[in-house]
């Protein structure tokens, strides 16, 4: 069964450093998302991406964040200068379309900013 | 924007009993309501969803009901088993051109006791 994969599973970084989180969405899906979950809290939307551009972003997704689909399979989230409060689980998700709504989530990357 | 409330935050049931989790939403334009199960250290897994053109959907031991007028929807799990123990999240989304942002509830920790 196709699934969303994410690497790395755990990333530890120093405050102020840049990190890139990687995702491989399900191959025939066209819509891609990043969400985050601070420990013990609910899942929060960060950004949606379609046709090589951002469709929607939340207030969390400020200038320090960017997304890219560098090739036909990968979808990345970059945080330029990490802050302590960026520590969270980051989930990538993908969906086939907007009529077929189902979003499938990856296993997540735990980001720890020291 | 959309706001999703979820109750209860924790729920403990005996094996074989039923469990009910309730959510309310605020945006009358929302038309898609998925439920996700999240096990410790894993990403959210879609277990059932419902669209606004139906009032109820069932899949084996899991059912979801939707009341559009009252803007609330519920997850029902019958004949609970220990492997049902997890955190359950409801979510809502409304149609968008570039992808469907999910707004999540705060989660329910379900514990099924032997």
Structure characterization notes:
The complex is a heterodimer of chains A (114) and B (114). With 114 residues, chain A is mainly beta. Chain A has no helices and eleven strands. Chain A is globular and about 40 Å long. By secondary structure, chain B is mainly β. Chain B has no helices and eleven strands. The mean pLDDT of chain B is 94. Classes of the chains: A mainly beta (114), B mainly beta (114).
Short description:
The complex is a heterodimer of chains A (114) and B (114). By secondary structure, chain A is mainly beta.
What are the salient characteristics of this protein?
heterodimer; A: 114 residues; mainly beta; 11 strands; 0% helix; 50% strand; B: 114 residues; six-stranded mixed sheet; globular
- % residues in beta strands of chain B: over 45%
Structural class of chain B: mainly beta
Question: Which chains make the largest contact?
Answer: A-B, 30 and 26 residues
Total DSSP helices of chain B: 0
Radius of gyration of chain B: 14 Å
Pairing-aware structural class of the strands and helices of chain A?
mainly beta
The count of β-strands of chain A is: 11
Distance between the termini of chain B: 41 Å
Morphology call of chain A:
globular
How do the strands and helices of this protein lay out in sequence?
The complex is a heterodimer of chains A (114) and B (114).
Chain A (H helix, E strand, L loop, with lengths): L4 E3 L2 E4 L5 E6 L6 E7 L6 E7 L2 E5 L7 E4 L6 E5 L8 E8 L7 E3 L3 E5 L1
Chain B lengths: L3 E4 L2 E5 L4 E7 L6 E7 L6 E7 L4 E4 L2 E6 L4 E6 L8 E7 L10 E2 L3 E6 L1
Parallel strand pairs in B: 2-11
Antiparallel strand pairs in B: 1-3, 3-8, 4-5, 4-9, 6-7, 7-8, 9-10, 9-11
